[in-house]
Amino acid sequence: MIFATRRKNGFSLVELLIVLAVMAALISTITPVAMNAIKKAKATQVAQNLKTLSSALQHAAYLNGANSAGQIKSHGNTPIRLSDLGRDLPKDSSGNDLYGFAYTRTSGGTYYAVVFYAGGDVDLATAGEILGNQSLEYTSTNLDADDSLIEDGAPYRSSASDVYYYFYFTIY
Residue ranges of the domains in the chain? Predict the structure, then answer.
């Protein structure tokens, strides 16, 4: 006599646990790769914004010149603002700018400037690779000691977690 057994539809507990273990293993291998990609994307975004802001500051100086106080002009005789250089720049949760710039006229028409990101959430090494061997860490410069420092946006301060992009340019 043959007994017929009926199998229930669905998965057994063991089968479900095996599927969950395989999914957990896949997620644990993919997560570091995804996090690294996110970190690199953020550094790329910040580095590109710094390059764009530095170019915009230089172009504004070349096109509009400077007033008698050495301030780079925007429209008319008004000093240039961060909002003149770039729009839709990110702000922190309090509404403060995360990007900023500071500059001073050193001699004649030569300016020493810095554009920076004060978010504190970017890997400096990755941003440095993208910008190409630039000294991106905060360094004590003549910008610190100069009383005629002109700045706008995020406050220019000493912070090793922020990204600072220094450059010179001359307007004639």
Answer: 27-170
